[in-house]
User: Fold these one by one.
Assistant:
Number 1:
Amino acid sequence: MNYLAIICDIKASRNIHNRKETQYVIINMLKEANILFSDNIAGHFAITAGDEWEGLVYEGCDYHAILEFFNNRLGSVQFYCGIGKGKVTIDDFSLPANFLDGPAFYLARKAVNLAKEMDSFLIYLSKEDFRVLS
């Protein structure tokens, strides 16, 4: 079964004036997202670094709704997003996404890095597909 790994990273986070407040906004945003979108989430969204987070959703879910939710909660704070479609090899879904592993996450990491290089909001990667969504 394929999943969509989603990795997001705040743009120029070191330049954010209210960095600590922004990190708390992210924490609360992820808690709320994990509840609101629980039917779509295989691995709960969790912070992987101070200004980066990841989650795992079921293939076919409306990931745009989740990203729109993030955008609305973060307001003027912009972020990059990489989505990788693929399998998951560590699949104990009682764990947060940052404990899971597999090709979906490798592709999502590559996608978020490409988004940063290309200064694009969203890159979607799978074995068969590459999409840039600004």
Number 2:
Amino acid sequence: MPAPKIVVVGSLNLDLVTGVDVWPAPGETRLGTSFAMIPGGKGANQAVAAARLGAEVSMVGRVGEDAFADTLLLNLANAGVSTDHVLKTPGASTGLAAITVCQGENSIVVVPGANHLLTVEDVEAAESVISRADILLLQNEIPLETALAARDLAVAHAVRVIFDPAPAPASKIPDRFWNVDLLTPNCSEASVLAEIDIQNRDDADRAAEVIHAKGASLVVMKLGDQGALWCEGGRPPIHVPAFPVKVVDSTAAGDAFTAALAVAWSEGRSPQEILRFACAAGGLAVTRAGAQPSLPTRAEVEQLSAAQ
């Protein structure tokens, strides 16, 4: 089977990661336990994750003209991701994310920098690579009009579109963005999109149906340690449980899941197989520290997803 062709239009960040034993309260200073600078950004994370899972991946995005830009570009190239459409932006900083990790959970402050300067024209310049893709991956860390342009271009070329609405949208999503092939929120994002407070599986089922009714052909909801939910209108939801793993750092686990979802879906697997593969990728990612260093290989994911 030929390698899936995946194009990611999205963000590239350098993650500044600090470990703490206890979350600091407002106005409080605490000593950190560790510090690292790690390549990240939801778009770049998903690109690297898909490449490690065997896909042929191209990245469309922007970085600044600073030392961080070369670090991110080299890291993508080393992972096998094409950076022909990642542009350097004079006068702009490369995107940064300040991440604090405490007992396996994280809080993140993102400074978009050049990511918010990615334009419709940049996407149009990448039409040749988008038109040849099996799947286009989009997130919510670039300007919405740019993401919409990418979505429209993919639709024009009959390329399937997966929209990962992360971080949760602060304002109403335009109607045509609902009309994607697959929408994959986590519980907090689904709560915002469906306007439902998700407290249990019944709430998650209901939220997925609401989101599907808004126009998404397929909704795959990430439920964290509860696994994932596949919702296709008119059919009973399919639930696959999470793999029991020891959580070290949840950074990029959702990105590992989404990339694995794209790879397995493009390979024509069944919904149960797709969710199991994606849950395995996300589960492995939480067992390691950092964003892109935590992303698993194809062999690792196949081994875990085959486990009983």
